[in-house]
Design a protein that fits this description.
Number of domains: 1
Largest sheet: 8 strands, mixed
Low-confidence stretches: none
Shape: globular
Helix content: 10-25%
Distance between the termini: 33 Å
Number of helices: 5
Mean pLDDT: 92
Oligomer: single chain
Order of helices and strands: EEEHHEEEEHEEEHH
Length: 168
């Protein structure tokens, strides 16, 4: 039977139990915009859009699961993906009754701590029942995050990433 993730933090000395879960409050492209552009856009807990000189940009908050070897629950990242207007509109239209057959293409829209080059990775976004946020799968690419997503991470690496996220 798989174990529950737990560790004594080498930074603070505290004992932490449960698989790590870290989320981003907004897509990084939104945060990189001026206050004026942000104010004209909209940022909610699950959806975001803004308009700049390149047009309107649409985002949805999703979950990336990275398995931890020997642990029951994965390392969870609450991240944002960009969506086309068509996908964004469909997502909103079917929000309360998701179209489980529909898969959205999106671009990864956050810079994850620990990993280099996570921004703009190609993804597929899948709905879940029960009001849970959609999850994403990364397209195959030479990238450490993709490798961890496909092949799992060790308990030691999960602890190192969690400590970096909690303590900088």
């Amino acid at each position: 039977m798989a174990a529950i993730f737990s560790f004594k933090c080498s930074c603070c000395g505290e004992f932490h139990e449960g698989s790590p879960s870290f989320g981003f409050r907004a897509p990084d492209p939104y945060l990189e915009q001026s206050e004026e552009i942000q104010d004209k856009g909209e940022l909610g807990s699950d959806l975001c859009f803004y308009e700049d000189e390149d047009g309107i940009h649409y985002f949805a908050r999703v979950v990336l699961n990275v398995p931890i070897i020997g642990v029951q629950e994965p390392f969870l990242w609450g991240v944002w993906v960009s969506l086309s207007k068509e996908s964004y509109d469909h997502y909103i239209e079917t929000y309360d009754n998701p179209d489980m057959e529909r898969i959205y293409f999106g671009w990864f829209s956050n810079y994850l701590p620990w990993y280099s080059n996570t921004y703009a990775l190609a993804t597929d976004v899948f709905h879940r029942n029960g009001g849970d946020r959609p999850y994403l799968e990364l397209h195959e690419v030479e990238n450490e995050l993709y490798n961890d997503f496909k092949n799992s991470i060790s308990i030691e690496k999960a602890q190192e990433i969690a400590e970096k996220c909690m303590h900088g």
